Structures are given as C-alpha cells and as structure tokens.
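Progress note, sequence design subtask.
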C-alpha cells in the first residue's frame, strides 16, 4: 500500500513483511517521545521553487506553450510578482503551472505514437 504496509493481513507467516513498517512506526514513536518534530522546523516556502531551473524554464513566457492563452502583460506581472515576493504562490499562478504542465503532457503523449511509426490522429 502507499503507507508501506503489505496488502495482506498480518499473520505469523506474513509478519516478516511488516518489518519495514515496524521500523518506521518505531522511529516515529521515538520522535514523539523525545519531542522531536517529524517535519523540519523550516519547511520550504512556495517562493523557493523559483530557485529550481526547471520551474524558471517552465514559466518563461517565451518558452511557454500556453502563453497565447493569457494577456502578455498580466502573465508577465503575475510571474514577476511571484518571483519577487517570497510569499506562497497565488492560486492563479498554480493554475497557470497546471495548464502548462497538462499541455506539455498532452503534447508528449501525441508525439509518442508518431515516433513509434504510427500516424497520430487529430
């Protein structure tokens, strides 16, 4: 399962499969007993994504596939405001990122059959 537990009931003959989960739960229990937080005290901020070159390239209006969907001045202002402030990204920027990523996934899915020798249908 997604938590690391096996997808089988715990029985004497399946207990060995639960060893990794037992270690994980044991460490979590020790952290709780000691009072150590499970997550870092300074989690990454949303503005820190601009330090990733992939993110900067993704939201460069010159290379964005979905840039024609937006008013160029508004898009540039939104991106510049997000870069300048280290506040959490506004939901509107999240929507821009989602549309850009979705468009790129669709494009790559359409190109795979064409590269395999199949003809892509429109």
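Output:
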């Amino acid at each position: 399962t997604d938590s690391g537990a096996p997808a089988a009931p715990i029985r004497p003959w399946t207990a060995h499969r639960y060893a990794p989960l037992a270690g994980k739960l044991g460490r979590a229990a020790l952290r709780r007993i000691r009072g150590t937080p499970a997550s870092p005290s300074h989690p990454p901020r949303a503005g820190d994504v601009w330090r990733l070159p992939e993110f900067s390239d993704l939201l460069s209006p010159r290379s964005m596939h979905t840039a024609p969907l937006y008013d160029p001045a508004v898009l540039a202002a939104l991106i510049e405001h997000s870069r300048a402030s280290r506040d959490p990204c506004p939901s509107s920027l999240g929507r821009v990122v989602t549309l850009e990523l979705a468009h790129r996934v669709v494009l790559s899915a359409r190109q795979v059959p064409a590269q395999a020798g199949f003809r892509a249908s429109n």
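The radius of gyration is 23 Å. Work on this subtask will continue into the next period as scheduled.
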